[in-house]
Amino acid sequence: QKNKIKNIIKNCMIKPNVLITKQIEGDILDLTMFATRSNAIDHSKHSVVTICFYKPIRKIRLTKIFKGKQAKILQRTLTDKVIEIKNDQAILINEMVELGKIMNINEGIEIIETNQECAIFVIETEYLDPLDVFLRGIVLLMEKSKNLKDEINKSADE
């Protein structure tokens, strides 16, 4: 069973420490978070103290030409492999960027937002094996299914 689940995880969108979900306007992401009780020894060497967090990703377009020093600053500001510099000019090679990375840029970048565009969220888990997260999710799904079945049976009896 464990090997079967590992193969499912290997071939789906759950990767080590990262879960990706695509959503469109109006979709709701329902999450149950788990906290681990600890005396902080587990994460004392790390600055991240959250066990799970998300980063919204948006599609962008350059609205001005960035050259020279401005191009290099833009390349450093955005996520890796978003901007390439050719002939001393910034070229957009990946239009999907973490929203937090572009909030400090005042001009020259437009966030493309239409009803058809997907808003992508990258959900990262810290210090938990993705298999453990997946298995906890299965247990919660079974519990919710049982509760729904009980509610249906209760309302049928009334």
What does this entry look like structurally?
One of its GO terms (cellular component) is nuclear DNA-directed RNA polymerase complex. This is DNA-directed RNA polymerase. InterPro entries: RBP11-like (IPR036603), RNApol_insert_sf (IPR036643). The chain is α+β, with helices and mostly antiparallel strands and 158 residues long. The chain has two domains: 1-17 and 128-158, no CATH class; 19-28 and 49-127, no CATH class. Helices cover 32% and strands 26% of the residues. It has helices at residues 2-10, 68-77, 99-102, 130-157; strands at residues 14-15, 18-23, 52-62, 83-86, 89-92, 96-98, 109-112, 119-125. The strands form two sheets. Strands 1, 2, 3, 6, 7 and 8 form a six-stranded antiparallel beta sheet that branches. The longest helix is centred in the last third of the chain and has 28 residues, at 130-157. The radius of gyration is 21 Å and the shape is elongated. The two termini are 40 Å apart. Mean pLDDT is 70; it is low at 39-50.
